[in-house]
Structure formats: C-alpha cells, structure tokens
Design brief:
Length: about 300
Amino acid sequence: MGFLGVGKTTAILSLLEQKPATENWAILVNEFGQIGMDGTLFKAHGISVKEIPGGCLCCAVGLPFQVAVNRLLSEVRPDRLLIEPTGLGHPKRTIDMLTEGPFQSVIDLRASICLVDPSKLKESRYTSHESFVDQIALADVVVANKMDITSAHSIKLFNNWISQSNPTKTVSAQTTQGQLDINWLNLPRNPNRHPAFPKAHSHQSRNNVNTTGYKSFSHIFSEQSLFNYGNLSTLLSELKVERVKGIFSTDEGWFIFNAVDGNTTINSSLPSTTSKVEIIDSKPIQTALLDLFKRCLIKRPSSAL
C-alpha cells in the first residue's frame, strides 16, 4: 500500500521479477477510478489478475471484494496473493476482512508493506490525511521510495515519523524505483498495530469519491485512436493535477504513462483493446482536459471519441 503516485505498481513489478519459478502468484488490484490499468502490466508477467475499480477496497470489502478474492483462490489456487489497494484506500477494513471474516481460515496474512514518498511529509495535506496516516500506522514494513530525488530534510522527516511508531516497525528501509526485498513478504504480521482513525470511511459507499477529498475523471478512447508519443509525454509532464495514469496506443507502440507532480514514468505495455486515461485531483477536474488529450491524436477516428 501507499499514497497516490508513490510507486506501488513499480514495486509489485520488482517483486514479480523475483518470483520463484515454482510458485504460482495472483494479484488483486484496486483502482480509485472507474477503469483499471495496472492489470495489463501484471498480466504481461504471466500473473493472474482481478481488478476492482470505482473506489477504495476499504469501501468495497463487501461482495465485490469477496467475489474477487474467492475467484482468485478457487480458480488460480495461488501460493501467494498480492493485494494492491488504491492510494486513497484506508487499510483497516481490508485487513479485518482477511483476518476475521470468511478468509481467515484459508489466508495466512503476512506483513503489510507501505511505500512512502518522503517529500510528502513536508505537506500537512498529506500528514493530516486519514488514509495517509493509517497506511503507515498499520504497515509492518515501511519503505521510503524515490530516494534518488529526495532531499536530506525529507529523509530526516521520514526517519522521525517512523521512529515514533508504536509498535516499532518490523522493517524500515529506503529504496529507489520501488525495489523491494522479496523476503519481506514472508515476515509475520503484527496484529497489535492500530489505526489513528479507526472509523475512517466507515459510512462511505464504494462510488462516493468525495469523502476522501479527491475526485477522479476517466475516459476510454475509441479503438482507432492513435497518439503522438512526444506530444503525449509533454502534456502529461505539464498537467497541474495530482495524478494521471493512462495506457495509450502511440506512434511508437503501446505505453502506460504515470504522471505525479510533473514527473512522468513510462513503461512499455502489451496492446490493449483501447487507449484510456484516469485523472485524480483534490480540485474539481475540468472535462476540458479531455480536449488536451485529443490534440495529441495523430489519427482521428470518424466516430466520436
């Protein structure tokens, strides 16, 4: 787990590269918006994936969550099930479901891993956000990511924050590009960790995104849409929004674009049926942003986008 844009998808990809050939893994992916994208990357590694879009797992731990987990367990019979919650999700109810509900006898829940971007610890809108605080509070392993672009002051803030954890974190580490140690997955979970906001999201419906303080906008383009790679990269680096994630068919191939704070990460992707984009921000999202993406099109389909 980890807040928006911290590098969770990249971290899971690093774990997949370390997966023992003899083990069968599966992944449950949760997207805050209405469309999913990470599954495309994970499936390229031969991993079985189920996606739950349209809210955070903490608000979807009812039937959709149970059905997705049950299907993965019965159809895939994985040796290990990784769960990637949305960056805006509160982990308490998900952990409760896995340890106290119908899955407690079939799932051996191990340590929870949380990635943190230390630079965010300078901003009160993060350090006072319920989900941000409790993702760290409930994690057994806390990893400061993006160390290659982190200041000494931010590292100090991270170390101070973690030093105040009670119980003490099982592991506190620093990394770049989401590189995780696969051995952390086998560490035991400490059941004595408690959230600072135990009632967070307790009355939030799965599709109500406003109570998190963030909004999302999704769009699926027509199958014929083809984008200019260079123009698209420039657009994503210049957009003044919290987070943009998209999978696009470009004149240089298929790519998944992640843009956070003006920093864009680009990964090649297997072809998808359509190009699509998800925008998340704390301010109302203007649908006029869609026109900016349309201007990056090389081939304009005759039908409406």
